[in-house]
Amino acid sequence: MSPKKKKSPKKNSKKKPVKRKPAKKTGKKVLSRKKAVKKAKVTKRPKGKENIIGVITHYFPQVRAAVIKLKSPLAAGDRIKIKGHTTDFTQAINSMQIDHVSVNQAKKGQEIGLLVDSRVRQHDIVYKV
Questions:
Q1: What b/e sequence results for 68-86 when a residue is b if at least 16 CB atoms lie within 10 Å of its CB, and e otherwise?
Q2: Does residue 100 fall inside a structural domain?
Q3: Could you report the per-residue pLDDT of 63-76, keeping only the tens digit for each?
Q4: How far lies 111's CA from each of 46, 70, 78, 102, in Å?
Q5: Is residue 43 part of a domain?
Q6: How far apart are CA 15 and CA 116, in angstroms?
Q7: Which of 109, 90, 89 is nearest to 98 (CA)?
Q8: Mean pLDDT of the 74-80 span
Q9: Rounded to whole angstroms, how far apart are CA atoms 95 and 56?
Q10: Among 90, 53, 100, CA closest to 73
Q11: Can you point out the beta strands (E) in 8-122?
Q12: What is the DSSP string of 90-123?
């Protein structure tokens, strides 16, 4: 048998506190955290006269159709803008469907099917132009 080695006891290694130098004062006004958060939350609307109509809930790439959950009424012939993370285009509404039935108008709260010119994604926002 080989003799076992004794483990040496570990030393208490206490770290010395780091002394920090006080920050240099500049002429700029520093906001408190609460005020900075309040200012960050304020967002400006786009300058154009665009109203949010709805949100894309589904996209079917085979037929290039999108499902839109409406937040305001929409009619055939209106021009819409679809904007998202990678999407940004404008198109006119030629036809739309509710439950596979063609309609000329749709009310707030309804989900419509719409042929789109380009690929869209869920959560893209639809504006009326």
A1: bbbeeebeeeeebbbbbee
A2: yes
A3: 999 999 999 999 99
A4: 25, 6, 17, 13
A5: no
A6: 64
A7: 109
A8: 95
A9: 16
A10: 53
A11: 51-60, 65-70, 74-75, 79-83, 88-92, 96-98, 101-103, 105-106, 111-115
A12: EEE---EEETTEEESEE-TT-EEEEE-SS---TT
Tokens standing for residue 102: 């063609």
Q: What total number of domains does the chain contain? A: 1
Q: Is 59 helix (H, G, I), strand (E, B) or coil?
A: strand
- 50: which 2 tokens? 């665009």
- Domain of 104, CATH number, reads 2.40.30.10
Residue at 30 is within a domain: no
Domain that holds residue 62: 51-128
Per-residue pLDDT reduced to its tens digit, 83-122:
999 999 999 999 999 999 999 999 999 999 999 999 999 9
| Closest C-alpha among 61, 37, 54 to residue 121 | 61
Let me know if residue 46 belongs to a domain: no
pLDDT, tens digit (0-9, with 9 covering 90-100), for 42-63:
455 555 556 999 999 999 999 9
